[in-house]
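Researcher: Last one for today. Full complex below.
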Amino acid sequence: MADRAFDIRKQTGFTGIAIACFVMLYMPIILLVVYSFNAGTSIAIWEGFSWRWYTSAWANEQVQEATFRSLVIAVWASGISTTVAVLAALATTRTRKFKGQTTVFAMINQPLMVPEIVTAVALLIFFAMIKVATGYTGLFYLIIAHSAFCIPFAYLPIRARLQGMDLTLEQAAADLYATPFQAFRRITLPQLWPGILAGAMLAFVISLDDVVITEFVKSAGQDTLPTYMLGQLRRVVTPEINAISTALLGISVTMVIAFTLLSKFRN
Amino acid sequence: MRLLPRRASLSIGGWCVTTAISARNLRKTYPGQPPVHALGGIDLDILDNEFFTLLGPSGCGKTTILRLIAGFEHPTSGTLEMFGTSLLDAPPHKRQINTVFQNYALFPHMTVAQNIGFGLEMLGRPRAEINAAVEEMMALVQMTQMADRQTSQISGGQQQRVALARALAPKPKVLLLDEPLSALDFKLRKAMQLELKRLQTETGITFIFVTHDQEEALTMSDRIAVMSDGAIRQIGGPRDIYDHPSDRFVADFIGDTNFLSAETVSADGTTIRLSSGKEITVSGAPVQGKVSLAVRPEYARLTTEEAGLLSGTLGEVVYFGTDTHFHVALDDGTAFVLRQQNGPDVTVAFATGDRVGVHFPPATAQVLRD
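Model: Here's the assembly. Have a good evening.
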């Protein structure tokens, strides 16, 4: 037994490094959550437990407005990007292999590879031209921008689900007189739902969380929750920021848990 | 070779034999380096109300024929007709053909009854009619009490019945079955063979059955097409194929066969000489000179060295329950297997190592091209 296979867990310092990693990852977040319940006005000195910052954030009109705007954008962006992602996933899995399929795949996932700041600057310039030409300065620009960078996040789980599906089921439907549309609606779509929901939720969370592109694209008075928080940090920092962050964290974690549960129902 | 099934050969009395599926020079080539010739230009006529089996080893092209008839693939060239109308421009959902898939392909998000009713629903039939047909089909395959089960909650054999009921419910003109019994255990497979035959007789639908199991093919079929390498080697009734194989491949693939080398003696090929020097009279050889003689193990019997057509030394004697196999090393070096049915009165007069003779009725031997 002298020549035991290499086991990384047996290396000196493994446990220490592992613990250090977890502490570095989660300590700041735990501190953030803890201080959101601080009774005092400091984000570093503990003065007792209280819900006051949650109440104050809840009552803050600017927070309300930014939250509402964030949700509107996230709902639209996840809806649009998921629809596009379903179509793209169908086109890349349910058609005969075509020339340049890999290129198409890379192009769909472009937002994952291009630095976000580059996209942000490009959109800023592009939308500025349109804003000048049309005079329209509404939320539409943010919705479009968010939809675009959310597509790959919605696309990947949907495509994975489609690839894992039994193709003979669709053939069986066609064999039983279902037109291609009926086969899609009655056989493919019901089985695709978990993938679609997972994709939509990922897109929703990604949109809710975005700062860089939003900061560049938004017009005056179009703060979303993350850009509002960024703006606040430049002024007075109170545990209110912690409370908002904790609430956002809660939403994201809920979404991720729901996503994991849905993936487990795959079969 | 008899081309028509037993039923059709009785047609003098006014039977009308219609062709259900007709293929001419049907060819399927898959592009690639090198291209794969899945089907090399076959001609095929499948009759109405017939239980027709495509039999062959995997990769012989039998499933390709099925997929071409169902419409999941398009032929490279050739014609394909159903009751005289070309199928080639019709997509799968416009063909009055249903398929029982090898993996059953039941819709996992629907109940047994919903699965069976799916075809009629897609055809836009009224609810009452669908319900009645589903009831009828579930009774036919004895699944009535399972109507509301999910397809994942029933056994493999039951899934198989549901797949069958689902394909039969729209009353197709032709039913395609792609090795539907291969996933079942031995006893269930036996039962389902009889069941399928019964269903085919009761419904009068043309069944086209694909299998690599020769026994399955022999038990159920009116006619069998034996295939290999994308070509049809022989078409005929089970007896024709078994007793009169057209070539070495068919003789070897269907059942067990001993091949003996022999030589024609008379000019008309009816007398041939065995390796032992003895001459026998047969119905005729396909060629002059060197030929192969195919002898079924159960048509041969052991006898004394002098009385046999061939002689050799008895090797292993293997007991199989219903019968016993005798392995004989013939004097010319060929291995020969005889099969003798066991019974209360059957005794074995020879033991391993004995000199023995092998005899068979010359009429049961098939003379084939070497």
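Confidence is low (pLDDT under 50) at residues 1-14 of chain B. The radius of gyration of chain B is 24 Å.
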